[in-house]
């Protein structure tokens, strides 16, 4: 087994991805707490539409970056999609109306219709993430993604937006607008802006200072899904920083219980498969299953200790403050 690239101190954007329920939020929270404890200005943000950062931190972090009262330098943000749609309408509503009315007989309801269309709020959420990435307010951005399926289709969407939102619709919109002898901005400007946003977000996730950590558990379905996720990410030229195998049963937890011994043997089979496939590239990190759920700062810090190589990456003793 080799040491995974993550947690490389030069990384600026670290995304945690994986199948539903495997521990993405838990690992994101643990990593973000570690970075902030090291003294880095850290934003932990989720794009999951059913977020659980407020629950795991036992704080309300919806809508705006919220400082953690006990961890200096850590801001946490759950994107509020309603707010996102409203902001999108403020930013683009007029232009959308102008664009559509240039070639269709529509009233202003078209703004609501487009704002809620599949992919549009997600696209704009990526724009918000991009703003944080480009701004120097934070040293590190830890991104707790929605379960892999939707994050991967988001990447696919960016690609399509970028490649198809190009010349043809722009020229069409301009020509129709000219035929109606409309004054004002060229309608294709909006399409160009969208295209640029799609390009910039793709550039962000493919940048050398961005990586995706794939979280999984040692069970058949999760390992299958991990293969698919890694194939998809590679297809989009996204760096994979590490595979985190969560919920690994510890020997002391299994002793004397045939139920747990059987489960541990089952896990062992998948751990071997995982190690064989990804042990050398990108490298595998094992995180034990704790006796209780991971909720509250103390439990998150326990995961931090398991997740990050504290000595090598110079993270101070995390439990000492409690
Ligand atoms: N190592 C662990 N030990 C014990 N419990 C854990 C561990 N990792 C995660 N859990 C628990 O498993 C549950 C799922 O974890 P988490 O919410 O992080 O997964 P997720 O991948 O973000 O899920 P979703 O796909 O729903 O967003 C939570 O209740 C969490 O407390
Ligand atoms: Mg989650």
From TrEMBL:
Residues 12-308 form the ArsA/GET3 Anion-transporting ATPase-like domain. Pfam families: ArsA_ATPase. One of its GO terms (molecular function) is ATP hydrolysis activity. InterPro entries: ArsA/GET3_ATPase-like, ATPase_ArsA/GET3, P-loop_NTPase. NCBIfam families: GET3_arsA_TRC40. Belongs to the arsA ATPase family. This is Arsenite-transporting ATPase. It comes from Halalkaliarchaeum desulfuricum. The lineage of its organism: Archaea, Methanobacteriati, Methanobacteriota, Stenosarchaea group, Halobacteria.
């Amino acid at each position: 087994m080799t040491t995974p690239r993550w947690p490389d101190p030069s990384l600026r954007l670290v995304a945690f991805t994986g199948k539903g329920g495997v521990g993405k939020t838990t690992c994101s929270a643990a990593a973000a707490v570690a970075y902030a404890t090291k003294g880095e200005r850290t934003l932990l943000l989720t794009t999951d539409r059913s977020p659980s950062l407020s629950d795991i931190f036992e704080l309300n972090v919806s809508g705006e970056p919220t400082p953690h009262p006990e961890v200096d330098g850590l801001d946490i943000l759950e994107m509020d999609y309603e707010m996102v749609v409203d902001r999108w309408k403020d930013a683009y509503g007029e232009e959308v109306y102008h664009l559509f009315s240039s070639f269709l007989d529509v009233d202003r309801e078209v703004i609501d219709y487009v704002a809620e269309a599949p992919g549009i709020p997600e696209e704009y959420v990526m724009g918000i993430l991009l703003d944080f990435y480009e701004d120097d307010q934070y040293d590190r951005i830890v991104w707790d993604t929605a379960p892999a399926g939707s994050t991967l289709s988001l990447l696919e969407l960016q690609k399509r937006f970028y490649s198809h939102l190009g010349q043809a619709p722009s020229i069409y919109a301009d020509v129709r607008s000219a035929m109606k002898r409309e004054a004002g901005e060229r309608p294709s400007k909006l399409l160009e802006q969208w295209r640029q946003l799609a390009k910039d977000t793709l550039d962000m996730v493919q940048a050398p200072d961005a990586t995706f950590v794939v979280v999984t558990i040692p069970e058949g379905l999760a390992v299958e899904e991990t293969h698919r996720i890694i194939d998809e990410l590679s297809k989009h030229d996204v760096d994979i920083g590490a595979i985190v195998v969560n919920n690994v049963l510890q020997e002391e937890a299994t002793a004397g219980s045939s139920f747990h011994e059987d489960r541990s043997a089952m896990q062992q089979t998948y751990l071997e498969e995982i190690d064989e496939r990804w042990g050398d590239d990108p490298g595998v990190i094992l995180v034990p299953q704790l006796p209780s759920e991971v909720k509250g700062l103390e439990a998150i810090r326990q995961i931090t200790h398991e997740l990050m190589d504290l000595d090598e990456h110079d993270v101070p003793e995390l439990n000492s403050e409690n």
